[in-house]
Amino acid sequence: MAEVLLPVPPSAAAPWILDLNPDEPPARPWVLDLNPDPDERSRRSARAERDEIDAALRDQVEALVTHLRGGPNPALSTDTQLRYGTKGSLHVCVAGKEKGRITDFEAGGEKGMGPIDFIMAERMLPVGEALRWAADWLGLQPPPPTRPEVVDEGEPTDTSAWARQQWGEATSAAGTVAERYLVDHRGIALEAVERLVALDLIRFHPGHRASSKPGSRSWSAILFPIFDQAGELQAIQAVRLNPVTGRKITGTSKISNGPLAGHGLMLPGDGGVILAEGPENGISAWQETGRPVLIAFGGIVKVQDWPPAGAVVTVLADGDAVGSAAAKSRAKACDAMADRGVTVLVTDTPDGMDANKLLLDPAAGDLLALINHPLHWSDPAPVAEAAPTAWQPVDGDLSARIGALTKDTAANDPAAITAVLSEIAASRMDPIQQRGLLERVKRQTGMSVQVLEKGIKATRKQAIANREGFADICKRYVYVKATDCFWDRVTCEMVTLQSVRNHHWRDMPAGEGGPISPLEVMLQDPHHGCDRADSVTFLPRAPTIIEAPGGLRQLNMWTPPDVAAIAGDVTPLLDHLWYILDQDPAAVEFVLDYLAHLVQFPEIKMRKCVLIIGVPGIGKSIVYEWMMRLLGPKNCTPVEESDLRSQFNDWADGVQLIVVHELMAMEHKEVMNRLKNYITDPTIRINRKQLATYRYENRANFLMASNHRDAAQIEKGDRRYFIWHSKARPRPSTYYDALGAWFDNGGAEAMLHFLATRPLDRFNPFSPAPLTQAKAEIIEESRAGMDGYLHEAWETERAPFQHDLVTVNDVIDFMAKDKKISLSHKKVSLFLRSIGAELLGNKRLDGGRQQKVWAIRDQERWMEAPERAIALAYRSAWTLPDE
């Protein structure tokens, strides 16, 4: 069994043997010395211990990662680097000087981490616990537990000044682990987080410290500001996060700086105010209701003085045990508010739950229903009519009309009663406030509250039935079970339930406790509900809802185009294709057939694509843009190369044509393989942000253009790509203006008619794309990118490698200007290393320029040469060997 031995510091007077297990003889005793400087001894011992464990973990890194993540992906792994996950996003180096380095690209890491950091991220452990876990996994005797860090959980002595300093040092939470904490681990919608960022109500601190005391430990943290009622920042609360995963750390994770009593955080909204305990619960309620939320830090008692007399508040209680300290503190705060004339109602939260837990686990309870149907804390306090407050006041005219009611009114003027009930039904007040008004009506008229509540419900039902535009809102959306979201018929996009509710909340008729949720009506109302579908598809010329076998319903995302086919002159179209395809009849015929098939058979996916390469400005993409107009803009989408690299591919959802205007050098094989799948696979999996993934019938076709000859890596035997390298040069701007004028003035209709009537007897959408000269050349040049060409030039001593000395910039410039090939600095550097070139360092060359010079031949000689000799011998890539 391997052992870890803490070294004896040289200053120890005599070693003492510490037996950690007196009942059993230890495999190796720990050495405890009497160092006069125990802190220094502890630090040296800890460093040695960590180094020993780290080295052992690096030797067994494959077994470690496999233990924590499962086996590697053999299809993506190599002898020196193992890849884990279906996409290979976790890279583990198992050989060479970088052995043991782990890089998790899915978690946002790019620089890599060591095995101990990986254990901390995977198991969410602080460094001490991670070391003990690692020692146990390695079979080593674990080190003694270190003294835990003492963190002051109370109000720090630095109070508000330190809080303001920490808040000032923090940055935007957008794109940080603070955002990831809320979205990935707390279930908060990205839209809500983005609004909090815009309101500057959350920030990210990469090194938050509990106090200004020397040695105070720092952590990555999300910060929440805490204000007084005047809006002055008085405190902050920090939630400490794992800097890799964004999860809350184990142990002491929440630290407050500054005084909390009398201070809170108000989130803006419409309707009655909600009082919540803790930022995660408050943000959950804010997201679900759209109402203002006052967040208390340390219990509701901290903000019990905020609501003014006459206000109506909903206390969002945690499901604490009856008689617990938290429950008693909340009861004390509710009593204090009620004694001041505040109308208090409290949610009946399930035991052991809170608002955020309900948001994360809807099966445990409906958070929105919980908030909208609270319990009465005490009898309703009279609402101040003379001094309405900003906390949901009663309309003065309504109060006056209630005061004018009498028992005679109930008997002789029922329309007056109905008018008052209609006004109450249309208002957006908390249930407790409505109950108070009905009690007043009861006292005035003698009618029972039960009868009045029935009148309220009847009035609301009638309001729903008569509400103008409500049916149109429901007709606008289709609920899709597979994605748990809506399809918007107007924008032709998938939208989340939250966004629909937020957008149409004010359009809804009033219900108990506020407006009826749009989702309640759209998904549950049998008369006004929206249409539904089980899954999605894209099938041109079919209806929006397709009745599929087995009683299933499919949403068809295809949208009918609005261009009508009318016979006309298409000479500008033919001339332009003739121009950019170099007057090649076979190339023109193929492209026309491809375009015609898009028009005539939009439901049949072709297993090939068109890629036209040429210099900028010749109009390669003009015809592509015309096709997007003919097929319907909502059935087509332009994409950037970054979209092709992204893990999210919603751009491929619900489209017939994908246009890539500028395909760059695709050096990553993984991206090229992904593009192959999009071109040929009959089904693909759609991965949208914040939505569940789903299988989808792929009917997308590709038209691509590029300014770069090395835009694609093509293998021998490829069947997908029709590639044309245009020799055309840009024409005067008047030429392109005339093309646009033709298309906008009858050309679109004529082009559609021409393509719709073009014979396609000899065109097979599934056959291989024709092999062009440009494609053959690219296949030859695609041996590991451009390595084949570079190797040949180096071996035959041709430009840019005809001299012993080269610079990366000269190689890049030569290939771009002379060969029309774009290479990156990284690619050239990697090639030079692969052929054994030696980097001589920065040398001052002609004109006084300093450049990094490489020796590609006679390396030993040039490594010994002085800078002056190198500068005299250096020749640019354009000079001949004897010059």
UniProtKB/TrEMBL annotation:
Q: Which residues form the Toprim domain?
A: 273-359
Query: What segments bear the compositional bias annotation Basic and acidic residues?
Result: 38-51
The residues covered by the NrS-1 polymerase-like helicase domain are 613-720
Q: Which InterPro entries match?
A: DUF7146, NrS-1_pol-like_helicase, P-loop_NTPase, TOPRIM_dom
Q: Where are the transmembrane segments?
A: none
Chain segments carrying region Disordered: 27-51
Q: Can you give the residue ranges of the DUF7146 domain?
A: 159-265
Its recorded name reads Toprim domain-containing protein
